[in-house]
Amino acid sequence: MLVAIAFLSSCGKTLSGGGGEVTGVRTVAFNEPSPYGMVLIKRGSFEMGPSDKDSLWGINPETKAVSFDAFWMDETEITNAKYRQFLYYVRDSIIRERLADPAFGGNDLFMITEDRYGDPVTPHLDWNRPIPWKRPNEDELRAIESVYEINPVTGEKRLDPRQMNYKYEWYDYTTAALRKNNLDPYARVRNTDLQVDPNEVVMISKDTAYITEDGDIVNETITRQLSGPWDFLHTRIVNVYPDETCWINDFNNAYNEPYMRMYFTHPGYDDYPVVGVSWEMATAFCVWRTELFKQSMSFPAGQAIEPFRLPSEGEWEYAARTGKNENKYPWAGDDLQTAKGCFLGNFKPGKGNYTEDGHLIPARVGSFAPNEFGLYDMAGNVAEWTSTSFSESGPSQMNDMNPDLRYHAAIEDPYAMKKKTVRGGSWKDVAQFIRSDMRTYEYQNETRSYIGFRCARTQVGFSRSKGKK
Q: Residues near 80 by Cβ (< 8 Å), separated by ≥ 6?
């Protein structure tokens, strides 16, 4: 006996029947908003690599035709103010845990935050449920003060950088999807001439992390037998306080102490690009931003969300050159030696002459005109991290569709394997090194006063949002 079953769509319409034709079953529709402060770069293709041969600088035009899907990209570099929002989230999370600790009063309902100047404001239960003002008691004040340190000599008070540790987890979809890692032994081999060993042992590498009793961060990679999907969930702990000492360590015999003490914390630098941030710290910021975006939007339960991330090297070059093969820079033409040229971006036009463009160190983001895609400071100001692992062979080692090269280096890997590609040049570089088609690298745990970052995010499906061509 046949039983007819009628299926209903989310709108209540019957999906069975349809005149005997396949009519499709659509998922619940929802509108994904345009990410704040981002520009949509439409899908396209171009010749990735040097746009011409330059014997003086040893540049050979080894190019590769590549194509990209549409993606969002921050129109400016991440600023001190935006990164400070991340840092204060970490701070508040620490305070909240300590307020739940009986040693600090055991009141897990209380949390306090500060405004941009460090003054306390009304506390709250969480980000969505405000409660009336409550004066903190002695134990609660001790919990709040515990994340700060006071210089015993100068008396200056600031957040304790050693405590600003962010723990996050990430699921490695790519490794989990590899056929050799399938949990079903019979699904690992498609060749029916081969006999499958149901007892085959598959080894995987997994990142885990913890903090010791002395407060030291331990990130390690363990190798073990594949046992389930949890083997592809990795854990990392990253200290995310910017390295303010980079201003001293990057420049010998220079008076950069004011930048070390105030560039990140003083409100006068709020709209300047954050520096002293490693690739690892920038990646942690992207994870936090994804969670913040997810919590602030009403996505359907269980809906997969495209994360924020660092742009790939290819995406960065495509966006900087506005998809044009002939562009060496984010603008048309390449004459930067004239007086007009130095006002196209923040870089060093001559020997020791940093100020000809009106700036000595990084400028406020958006101080110069954007490129045709609407992106600011894609040449000079601060160089920018990408997601791509650095290889001398560059694009030739990558696919021609959404090219990228990623390697998650283990702690025990040689340091040379921990290079990440940096693009764009900076305020301290001469014109040649701010070219959009120039490649360089830095180690993933290194911090510099001239390297910052911006985020990217792949566009999901088709959007009617206004994008850049």
A: 263, 264, 269, 270, 271, 272, 273, 274
Q: Identify residue 458 by its one-letter amino acid code.
A: T
Q: What average pLDDT does the segment 201-212 reach?
A: 92
Partnered with residue 383 across adjacent β-strands are: 451
Give pLDDT tens digits for 341-352. Answer: 567 899 988 777
Reported pTM: 0.87
Cα separation, 280 vs 277, in Å, equals 8
Both tokens of 145, joined, read 């003060």
- Residue in 330, 436, 326, 325 with CA at minimum distance from that of residue 47: 325
- Nearest-angstrom CA–CA distance, 121 and 124: 10
438, 429 Cβ separation under 8 angstroms: no
In whole angstroms, give the CA distance from residue 91 to residue 181: 38
For the ranges 237-251, 265-279, 314-328, 351-365, which has the lowest average pLDDT? 351-365
| DSSP structure class, residue 321 | T
User: Are the C-beta atoms of 75 and 38 separated by less than 8 Å?
Assistant: yes
Q: Do strands 383-389 and 451-452 pair parallel, antiparallel, or not at all (unpaired)?
A: parallel
Residues 178, 360: Cα–Cα separation, whole Å:
49
Distance of CA 457 to the CA centre of its chain: 9
Task: Classify residue 403 as exposed, middle or buried by CB count within 10 Å of its CB (0-12, 13-18, 19+).
Answer: buried
Categorize the per-residue pLDDT at 120 as very low, low, confident or very high, splitting at 50, 70 and 90: very low
- Per-residue pLDDT of 322-380, as tens digits, reads 999 888 999 887 766 555 556 789 998 877 788 888 899 999 999 999 999 999 999 99
